[in-house]
């Protein structure tokens, strides 16, 4: 074993000790999607399709040691002057978000676990998450290389649903080269012709998108649109790279809210009106939400015909 691999192995062993048997076991389970530590020392876990529940406790000292080890792999440090950490958990690429005093009373963290298996669109239909009619609209849009925006709030299942769309793309157009861009590793793709890129400080999403255009992709997929890169994405979708997929954060179960969100993001890079570009680039909007019972549900699928001069032309197939 090389020296670098030995160092990595020691770090991983240390992380497993600091995470503890409970959290390590949760990380290994297929249906666990989030693990959270609150300031009171309680650990919570959320499983796919179920509400979050308490699962145990962790002492502040153990949490602080864990955070310090994770921070050292970037490398950085957590201090009172720099009390927040956003990175990937070295063990499995889970999104790790941590914060320490004085921002909070005691150490807190959130581990967003990447999907270990893909639920195909057929499973969403069979489980009643999407209707057969809505699935027909969506699969036709994928086959016709329409650009699809998946919209929903935090924890609504946007990324998991995007994975189902990507899975369908790989099955119906296996010859297509996919460019997948994201901040942290959450999207999965079974296609054999794919380039997966992740942002970094010297390579933000906007720069990755411009570089991806030179990689000859047939479809461009973005994990979440959250900044000025929205403009570059929309332009790419309308200039020879149709059939893309992206997610966007919106707490309103209305497709127009997703389009307004895109307007706000584009405004970070462009002072003029972008409504015509958005109306041309976005063909389909899927709105997804978490129900009171903790399950996910596609609230509606909207087809966008463009901007008519005063508003977006939208036909919305809303869930019953």
TrEMBL record:
Protein name per Swiss-Prot or TrEMBL: Conjugal transfer protein TrbB
Please give the Gene3D superfamilies that the UniProt record associates with this protein: 3.30.450.90, P-loop containing nucleotide triphosphate hydrolases
What GO CC terms are in its UniProt record? cytoplasm
Provide the family line.
Belongs to the GSP E family.
InterPro entries xref list: Conjug-transfer_TrbB, P-loop_NTPase, T2SS/T4SS_dom, T4SS_GSP_E_ATPase
Molecular functions per Gene Ontology: ATP binding; ATP hydrolysis activity
Specify the Bacterial type II secretion system protein E domain's residue ranges. Answer: 213-227
What the entry lists under PANTHER family is as follows:
TWITCHING MOTILITY PROTEIN PILT, TYPE IV PILUS RETRACTATION ATPASE PILT
Q: A Pfam family matched by this chain, by name? A: T2SSE
């Amino acid at each position: 074993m090389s020296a670098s691999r030995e160092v990595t192995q020691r770090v991983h062993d240390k992380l497993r000790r600091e995470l503890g048997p409970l959290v390590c076991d949760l990380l290994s389970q297929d249906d666990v999607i989030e693990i959270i530590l609150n300031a009171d020392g309680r650990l919570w876990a959320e499983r796919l399709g179920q509400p979050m529940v308490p699962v145990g406790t962790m002492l502040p000292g153990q949490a602080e040691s864990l955070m310090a080890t994770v921070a050292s792999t970037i490398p950085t440090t957590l201090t009172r002057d720099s009390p927040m950490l956003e990175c990937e958990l070295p063990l499995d690429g889970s999104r790790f978000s941590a914060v320490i005093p004085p921002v909070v009373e005691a150490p807190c963290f959130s581990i967003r676990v990447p999907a270990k298996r893909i639920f195909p669109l057929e499973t969403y239909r069979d489980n009643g998450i999407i209707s057969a009619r809505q699935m027909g609209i969506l699969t036709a849009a994928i086959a016709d290389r329409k650009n699809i925006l998946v919209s929903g709030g935090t924890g609504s299942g946007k990324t998991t649903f995007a994975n189902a769309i990507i899975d369908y793309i790989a099955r119906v157009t296996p010859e297509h080269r996919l460019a997948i861009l994201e901040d942290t590793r959450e999207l999965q793709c079974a296609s054999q012709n794919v380039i997966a890129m992740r942002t970094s400080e010297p390579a933000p999403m906007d720069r990755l998108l411009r570089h991806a255009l030179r990689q000859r992709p047939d479809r461009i997929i973005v994990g979440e649109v959250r900044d000025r890169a929205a403009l570059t994405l929309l332009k790419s979708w309308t200039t020879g790279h149709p059939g893309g997929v992206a997610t966007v954060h919106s707490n309103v179960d209305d497709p127009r809210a997703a389009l307004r969100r895109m307007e706000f993001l584009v405004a970070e890079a462009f002072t003029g009106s972008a409504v015509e570009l958005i109306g041309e680039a976005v063909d389909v909007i899927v709105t997804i939400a978490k129900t009171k019972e903790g399950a996910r549900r596609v609230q509606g699928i909207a087809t966008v015909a463009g901007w008519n001069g005063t508003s977006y032309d939208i036909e919305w197939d809303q869930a019953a």
